[in-house]
Amino acid sequence: MNLFLDYLTVTALFAFVALPAAIGLERERRIDRQLRDAERREVGPTEPRSTARPHKVTRHSYPKRWAKA
């Protein structure tokens, strides 16, 4: 009976440690599959050309001395 409990304990600890890794691996595979499907798809323009487009914003750096002492 002791041997069975030892095996059961080792198996339970292994499952406890390996389960998060298996869940993470499955999540990564799902994300990879979604990215691969999105890459294969040829998506045409979904909105007409007359609609407003987002404006590209550029960051301007401040001058070296912006505050006068």
Describe the structure.
- With 69 residues, the protein is mostly helical.
- Helices cover 57% and strands 0% of the residues.
- The chain has one helix and no strands.
- It has one helix at 2-40.
- The chain is elongated, with a radius of gyration of 28 Å.
Write the layout of secondary structure elements.
Layout: H1 2-40
Q: Which shape, going by the Cα principal axes?
A: elongated
Structural category: mainly alpha
Helical content stands at 55-70%
Order of helices and strands: H
Radius of gyration: 28 Å
Tag the structure with descriptive keywords.
about 70 residues; mainly alpha; elongated
Short description:
By secondary structure, the chain is mainly alpha-helical. The chain is built from one helix and no strands. The radius of gyration is 28 Å and the shape is elongated.
